Amino acid sequence: MSVKRKIFVSYSQGTDQEYFEIFCSAFSNIYDIIQDDSQTRCSRGETTVEIIARLRKDFIDAACCAVVLCGAETALDANIARAIKAVLDERRALIGVNLPGSRADAQGRVQVPEQLHENIVSGYAMWLEWMKLIESPLAMGAYIEIARRNARKPDLIRNSQLPILLAPD
Question: How far apart are CA 169 and CA 158, in angstroms?
């Protein structure tokens, strides 16, 4: 029996829990899904730097890829911003997934954390639509490999500073 590859998933736990559960149902037979526990970490009084370091050590290091489920509240969720920062610090593959009900600006651009947006634009992170992903779970392997190739191109990554959402503690 082969060992399942691990995927780290970050999402707005207040609004996107249902999508996380659907994601787990669709992919848990193929991948070991690691859930972000930043809410617990914040309640213990850790600083942003400590939370990011622990995310890297406890979750990101073990994962072949990180997936950010992007719903209506994702752009304003500090836990997701921390997770993205940790993923970029480790230069892991990064995939953003546009969930139904996500918010768009006047130009029709989906609202996501700035660092995710910058890395999608640079070509470092992939951007997928929810229905396309869920309709073909076996295609996830190809998406992960593309994202992993992108992560090996240091000129693509945009990770120069902490996101505005994460002002120093």
Answer: 22
